[in-house]
Amino acid sequence: MKIRGTVAAALASAGILLAGWQTGTQVNGISTVASSTTATGTTGAGSSGSGSTGSTGSSGSGGRQARQRPPGSSGTSASGTYRGNSVQTRFGPVQVQITVANGRITDVTALQLTNTDGKSIQISNRAAPLLRSKVLAAQSANVQTVSGATITSDAYLTSLQAAIDAAHL
Asked: Which of 31, 46, 95, 158 could form a disulfide with 111 if both were Cys (CB 3.0 to 4.6 A apart)?
């Protein structure tokens, strides 16, 4: 059991490093089409659990960091709709789209949520509105994950960050 936890932690760390590396190398791969933009980059390293159950509380932001604006950028962006990447998890894909007006996120729409079974659908349906309200309040992906929906939350926020990057917010 101890070995399995160690292996799971090592795999989770490797996944986070890989996702960060892919995000950093794909920033220039963003494509713009009229008022809709699709971001390319993060391909979703899901989270790995340690096999324990019954944990409570909410986890932190899962290693995500808000992107800093480049020096000399105004921080404003054109209004439009920006789609994040589809992030694959063991419970199904997650993809988020944001609507931006005058440089502010005005709406967050989950295009895909985890859906492999009834339990994952139930978790997604509970987590998505909570994440949406947190993101709209914070105007960033730097929010806490929803307790009991860590994998869904991490994928949601990863896709969201790709959309935010595409919008140059």
From this structure: 95
Residue type for 102, please? N
For residue 95 the two structure tokens come to: 């993809």
Q: Would you give the end-to-end CA distance of the chain in angstroms?
A: 43
CA angle (105, 106, 112) in 5-degree steps: 85
Which amino acid is located at 51 in the chain?
G
- Report whether 142 contacts 127 (CB < 8 A): no
Overall pTM > 0.85: no
d(CA 98, CA 103): 11
pLDDT digits (tens, 9 = 90+) for 123-158: 999 999 999 999 999 999 999 999 999 999 999 999
